[in-house]
Amino acid sequence: HDGLVGGQWVYGVIIYTAVLTTVLLKAALITNMWTKWTVLAIPGSLALWFAFLPVYAVVAPKFRTSTEYQGIVVHVYANARFWLTVVLLAVLCMVRDYGYKFLKRMYFTKPYHIVQEIQKFNIPDYRPRMERFKKAVHKARLLQRLRRTRGYAFSQTEGGQEKVIRAYDTTMQKPSGY
After folding, report:
1. Distance in angstroms (rounded) separating the CA atoms of residues 147 and 141
2. Residue 85 backbone dihedrals phi, psi, to 5 degrees
3. pLDDT tens-digit profile of 61-102?
4. What does pTM read for this prediction?
Protein backbone atom coordinates (compact mmCIF):
# COMPACT_ATOMS: atom_id res chain seq x y z
CA HIS A 1 0.00 0.00 0.00
CA ASP A 2 1.14 3.60 0.31
CA GLY A 3 2.72 3.25 3.77
CA LEU A 4 -0.17 4.88 5.57
CA VAL A 5 -1.79 3.19 8.53
CA GLY A 6 -5.54 2.75 8.40
CA GLY A 7 -6.20 3.65 12.01
CA GLN A 8 -9.48 3.87 13.86
CA TRP A 9 -11.56 4.48 10.74
CA VAL A 10 -10.52 1.15 9.27
CA TYR A 11 -11.38 -0.60 12.53
CA GLY A 12 -14.68 1.25 12.63
CA VAL A 13 -15.57 0.07 9.12
CA ILE A 14 -14.55 -3.49 10.01
CA ILE A 15 -16.68 -3.53 13.17
CA TYR A 16 -19.65 -1.87 11.46
CA THR A 17 -19.52 -4.41 8.62
CA ALA A 18 -19.33 -7.30 11.11
CA VAL A 19 -22.26 -5.94 13.14
CA LEU A 20 -24.33 -5.34 9.99
CA THR A 21 -23.62 -8.90 8.82
CA THR A 22 -24.60 -10.32 12.22
CA VAL A 23 -27.83 -8.32 12.40
CA LEU A 24 -28.81 -9.35 8.88
CA LEU A 25 -28.08 -13.01 9.65
CA LYS A 26 -30.27 -12.72 12.77
CA ALA A 27 -33.04 -11.18 10.67
CA ALA A 28 -32.68 -14.05 8.20
CA LEU A 29 -32.94 -16.55 11.04
CA ILE A 30 -36.22 -15.19 12.38
CA THR A 31 -37.79 -14.64 8.98
CA ASN A 32 -40.69 -17.07 8.57
CA MET A 33 -41.45 -16.49 4.92
CA TRP A 34 -39.04 -15.29 2.27
CA THR A 35 -40.53 -13.01 -0.35
CA LYS A 36 -38.91 -10.83 -2.95
CA TRP A 37 -38.99 -7.98 -0.40
CA THR A 38 -37.14 -9.90 2.31
CA VAL A 39 -34.55 -11.02 -0.24
CA LEU A 40 -34.20 -7.42 -1.33
CA ALA A 41 -33.97 -6.16 2.26
CA ILE A 42 -31.68 -8.69 3.97
CA PRO A 43 -28.96 -9.67 1.45
CA GLY A 44 -29.63 -6.47 -0.47
CA SER A 45 -28.68 -4.34 2.53
CA LEU A 46 -25.31 -6.02 2.81
CA ALA A 47 -24.68 -5.75 -0.93
CA LEU A 48 -25.67 -2.08 -0.81
CA TRP A 49 -23.15 -1.45 2.00
CA PHE A 50 -20.34 -3.15 0.08
CA ALA A 51 -21.17 -1.04 -2.99
CA PHE A 52 -21.76 2.20 -1.05
CA LEU A 53 -18.50 2.30 0.92
CA PRO A 54 -16.10 2.59 -2.05
CA VAL A 55 -18.29 5.19 -3.76
CA TYR A 56 -18.59 7.23 -0.57
CA ALA A 57 -14.86 6.91 0.17
CA VAL A 58 -14.05 8.41 -3.24
CA VAL A 59 -16.81 11.02 -3.61
CA ALA A 60 -17.10 12.42 -0.05
CA PRO A 61 -13.46 13.56 0.35
CA LYS A 62 -13.73 15.51 -2.93
CA PHE A 63 -16.50 17.60 -1.35
CA ARG A 64 -14.40 18.09 1.79
CA THR A 65 -16.69 15.91 3.92
CA SER A 66 -15.50 12.69 5.53
CA THR A 67 -11.89 13.25 4.45
CA GLU A 68 -10.86 10.45 6.81
CA TYR A 69 -12.37 7.98 4.33
CA GLN A 70 -9.87 8.89 1.64
CA GLY A 71 -7.93 5.74 0.72
CA ILE A 72 -9.74 3.59 3.26
CA VAL A 73 -11.02 1.10 0.69
CA VAL A 74 -7.51 -0.18 0.00
CA HIS A 75 -6.95 -0.78 3.71
CA VAL A 76 -10.29 -2.53 4.12
CA TYR A 77 -11.26 -4.53 1.04
CA ALA A 78 -7.72 -5.65 0.17
CA ASN A 79 -7.05 -6.87 3.71
CA ALA A 80 -7.65 -10.57 4.41
CA ARG A 81 -8.09 -9.80 8.10
CA PHE A 82 -11.13 -7.67 7.24
CA TRP A 83 -12.88 -10.57 5.52
CA LEU A 84 -11.83 -13.04 8.20
CA THR A 85 -13.05 -10.75 10.98
CA VAL A 86 -16.40 -10.06 9.34
CA VAL A 87 -17.10 -13.75 8.69
CA LEU A 88 -15.70 -15.05 11.98
CA LEU A 89 -17.49 -12.51 14.20
CA ALA A 90 -20.80 -13.05 12.43
CA VAL A 91 -20.49 -16.84 12.72
CA LEU A 92 -19.46 -16.71 16.38
CA CYS A 93 -22.34 -14.42 17.24
CA MET A 94 -24.88 -16.61 15.46
CA VAL A 95 -23.74 -20.04 16.72
CA ARG A 96 -25.88 -19.78 19.86
CA ASP A 97 -29.01 -18.73 17.95
CA TYR A 98 -28.69 -21.34 15.22
CA GLY A 99 -27.83 -23.99 17.84
CA TYR A 100 -30.92 -23.13 19.88
CA LYS A 101 -33.14 -23.28 16.81
CA PHE A 102 -31.61 -26.61 15.78
CA LEU A 103 -32.12 -28.15 19.22
CA LYS A 104 -35.67 -26.83 19.43
CA ARG A 105 -36.67 -28.26 16.05
CA MET A 106 -34.79 -31.57 16.28
CA TYR A 107 -35.21 -32.61 19.91
CA PHE A 108 -38.10 -30.54 21.30
CA THR A 109 -40.37 -30.66 18.26
CA LYS A 110 -43.77 -28.98 18.43
CA PRO A 111 -46.72 -29.96 16.25
CA TYR A 112 -46.39 -26.82 14.15
CA HIS A 113 -42.80 -27.82 13.27
CA ILE A 114 -44.15 -31.03 11.75
CA VAL A 115 -46.80 -29.12 9.81
CA GLN A 116 -44.12 -26.72 8.52
CA GLU A 117 -42.02 -29.63 7.25
CA ILE A 118 -45.04 -31.26 5.61
CA GLN A 119 -45.82 -27.99 3.83
CA LYS A 120 -42.17 -27.32 2.94
CA PHE A 121 -41.59 -30.73 1.37
CA ASN A 122 -45.13 -30.87 -0.07
CA ILE A 123 -45.81 -34.29 1.46
CA PRO A 124 -49.22 -35.55 0.29
CA ASP A 125 -51.76 -36.50 2.92
CA TYR A 126 -52.65 -40.18 2.53
CA ARG A 127 -55.56 -39.93 4.96
CA PRO A 128 -58.54 -38.83 2.86
CA ARG A 129 -60.89 -39.92 5.67
CA MET A 130 -59.49 -37.14 7.86
CA GLU A 131 -61.10 -34.44 5.72
CA ARG A 132 -64.48 -36.19 5.88
CA PHE A 133 -64.08 -36.60 9.63
CA LYS A 134 -63.37 -32.87 10.05
CA LYS A 135 -66.47 -32.02 8.01
CA ALA A 136 -68.60 -34.42 10.07
CA VAL A 137 -67.36 -32.92 13.35
CA HIS A 138 -68.05 -29.42 12.05
CA LYS A 139 -71.58 -30.43 11.03
CA ALA A 140 -72.25 -32.06 14.42
CA ARG A 141 -71.11 -28.93 16.24
CA LEU A 142 -73.36 -26.77 14.09
CA LEU A 143 -76.32 -29.04 14.91
CA GLN A 144 -75.54 -28.84 18.63
CA ARG A 145 -75.53 -25.05 18.43
CA LEU A 146 -78.86 -25.10 16.61
CA ARG A 147 -80.43 -27.35 19.26
CA ARG A 148 -79.29 -25.03 22.02
CA THR A 149 -80.80 -21.97 20.37
CA ARG A 150 -83.98 -23.62 19.08
CA GLY A 151 -87.38 -22.68 20.51
CA TYR A 152 -89.37 -19.57 21.16
CA ALA A 153 -89.29 -17.26 24.12
CA PHE A 154 -92.64 -18.49 25.47
CA SER A 155 -92.77 -22.01 24.10
CA GLN A 156 -94.17 -24.79 26.32
CA THR A 157 -91.79 -27.48 25.08
CA GLU A 158 -89.99 -29.71 27.52
CA GLY A 159 -87.08 -27.53 28.43
CA GLY A 160 -87.63 -26.37 31.96
CA GLN A 161 -90.10 -23.53 31.45
CA GLU A 162 -93.03 -25.79 32.15
CA LYS A 163 -91.71 -26.57 35.65
CA VAL A 164 -91.20 -22.90 36.45
CA ILE A 165 -94.73 -21.98 35.37
CA ARG A 166 -96.34 -24.81 37.36
CA ALA A 167 -94.36 -23.89 40.50
CA TYR A 168 -96.39 -20.72 41.05
CA ASP A 169 -100.07 -20.46 41.80
CA THR A 170 -101.43 -17.99 39.31
CA THR A 171 -104.84 -17.72 41.02
CA MET A 172 -103.36 -15.70 43.91
CA GLN A 173 -102.93 -11.93 43.67
CA LYS A 174 -99.43 -10.46 43.37
CA PRO A 175 -97.97 -8.74 46.43
CA SER A 176 -97.87 -4.96 46.19
CA GLY A 177 -94.68 -3.27 45.16
CA TYR A 178 -93.87 -5.51 42.20
Report:
1. 10
2. -65, -45
3. 999 888 888 888 988 999 899 999 999 999 999 999 999 999
4. 0.62
